Amino acid sequence: MSRIDRAGRVIPTSPQTVYAALLDRDALEAWLPPEGMRGRIERWDPRPGGGFRMVLSYLDPVGNPGKTSDATDVVEVGFAELVPPERVVQTAVFEADDPAYAGTMTMTWHLAAADGGTEVTVTATGVPPGIDQAAHEEGIASSLANLASYLVTNAQAAQRKP
């Protein structure tokens, strides 16, 4: 049986708003890096067959060795499928010399209307064996918490504007 890493969360906004945040460069840079990291997108092409290159930097690399260097993870992400506002399927390949991080991981973001907002479920398949499952699921959950916070903060700021 192949490994599936997953996390989910209800985010208090519409599926359309969540979907838009999955395809907005500035938004992704703000919310996608899990706790303890920051991210920078170097290339951006938000369409099926397009993708992006993200450099994730550890704020404190001690005890968190990066996949690409001591302090960074560099990942090439492709958009395999975009189904507004229901699903985003990404392929992810880490730049790493260690074969334990080799291969193409598939990340599927499912969005479904739910009481109180949008249920967002993320599943990862083809996860390289060098990535610890518990740590990966914790990282996905952290990104989802960041996404919720980002969208709530932006909605509140929009309501305050005259």
In brief:
It contains three helices and seven strands, in the order βααββββββα. The protein has 162 residues and is an alpha+beta fold.
Walk me through the structure.
With 162 residues, the chain is of the alpha+beta class. It is built from three helices and seven strands; from the N terminus they run E-H-H-E-E-E-E-E-E-H. The chain has helices at 15-22, 25-31, 133-160; strands at 4-11, 37-45, 51-58, 72-83, 87-94, 105-114, 117-125. Strands 1-7-6-5-4-3-2 form a seven-stranded antiparallel β-sheet, with helices on one face. The mean pLDDT is 93.
Main β-sheet: number of strands, strand sense, barrel status? 7 strands, antiparallel
User: Given the helix and strand composition, which structural class is it?
Assistant: alpha+beta
**Rg, Cα atoms, Å:** 16 Å
How far is it from the N-terminal to the C-terminal residue, by CA?
55 Å
Strand content: 35-45%
| Strand order across the largest sheet | 1-7-6-5-4-3-2
Find the count of extended strands (DSSP E, 2+ residues). Answer: 7
Query: What best-fitting shape do the alpha-carbon axes yield?
Result: globular
Itemize the secondary structure elements and their pairings.
Blueprint (H helix, E strand, L loop, with lengths): L3 E8 L3 H8 L2 H7 L5 E9 L5 E8 L13 E12 L3 E8 L10 E10 L2 E9 L7 H28 L2
Antiparallel strand pairs: 1-7, 2-3, 3-4, 4-5, 5-6, 6-7
Task: Please name the defining characteristics of this protein.
162 residues, alpha+beta, 3 helices
